[in-house]
Amino acid sequence: MKRLCPSLRFLVLGFALTTCCRLAARGAETGLSPDVTQASLAASSLRLVAFHARELARRKKLQQQKCSTEGDVDAARARLANARYNACLVWGEPEAASEQLRILVAVNERELQRERALHECRAASEASLERSQGRLAYARSLLAEKEGDIEIAVEQLRIVVAMRMNELDRFQDLHRRRQIAVAEVDAAQCRVAYARHRLARAEGNSAKAIAELQTLIALHEMGLTRLTEVQRHAAVSEIDMTVGRWYAAEARLRLAMFKEQHAAAKQELQQLVAIDRALLELVQKRSTLLGGGPASWEEGAVVELQWQLDFDRHRLAKGAVGEYIHEHPPDVLWF
């Protein structure tokens, strides 16, 4: 299988989709088992890859019609690379997963070149340029970690932390001038805490990594409390509230896994699976009401959320036999 080119490999794996779905349905009747949830996750991964491949083809067609930019096409390439990266990890193909990270690095390198050209012409802000540098650094850190080059990973993650700190400073200044909501400052603080956690983890500083996760949990819970207060005035949707609960639960899960607290991890995973289901149902309901068409936001969100649900169900099933998937593939598009 590893000798096949990526496109052919995904095509061949597509023939297993029907069997995977049948196994997944049987799993719903008999309870969670790693084999069944693995099959369901493989099917979801294939659907996710197919969706983003169609979106990339659509973007390329729009570009030919002068209705889309090379940046838009590259953004679609990044999402497809992310989906394929996830799929390769699910299918146990680490070399192919690393190749998708190389694609992601190349996409971010081109984006940075475009941003620099725009910045030189004063058509892009310093903040926009710095975000592009941070995205490239993060992609490089992921590839370096995957290839075992910890020194490079640490170097790149320090760039990411510096970028996130500068972003937080800008957001705090904008909030003081009443130009953005406090929720945006909260989100920026969460990104700083997570970047510091990743750096501490790469440096092998467990105490610091745990402390940053605890900070992240406190920030998410504070944000969730604020959302609850605002919801009383009907200013927050149920989807926003559910997303807030998801982030808080996911942060607690990371901490439990990092500290190898298996009972706590299982409890958080059970909660996360319930939140996944609730969020998926909310988005599906929204899609039905709005009549989302091909390549709509709702269609993509449903595919992504189904993948997330199957991913968390598989982690829960693995936990039942004393194993967990520790690394979270969506970290690739953390930005």
Topology:
Blueprint: H1 6-14, H2 17-30, H3 34-64, H4 70-90, H5 94-120, H6 126-146, H7 150-176, H8 182-203, H9 206-231, H10 238-258, H11 262-290, H12 297-320
Helix pairs in contact: 2-3, 3-4, 3-12, 4-5, 5-6, 6-7, 7-8, 8-9, 9-10, 10-11, 11-12
| Radius of gyration computed on alpha carbons | 20 Å
List how many beta strands DSSP finds. Answer: 0
Strand content: under 5%
Major beta-sheet overview: none
Percent of residues in helices comes to over 70%
Helix-strand string: HHHHHHHHHHHH
Mean pLDDT: 85
Calculate the terminal CA-CA distance, rounded to whole Å: 32 Å
Low-confidence stretches: 10-30, 328-335
SS content category: mainly alpha
Count up the helices.
12
What general outline do the C-alpha atoms trace? globular
Index terms:
globular; 12 helices; 81% helix; mainly alpha; 335 residues; single chain
Could you characterize the architecture of this molecule?
With 335 residues, the chain is mainly alpha-helical. Helix 8 packs antiparallel against helix 9 (206-231). 81% of the residues lie in helices and 0% in strands. It has helices at 6-14, 17-30, 34-64, 70-90, 94-120, 126-146, 150-176, 182-203, 206-231, 238-258, 262-290, 297-320. The chain has a domain at 253-288 and 302-324.
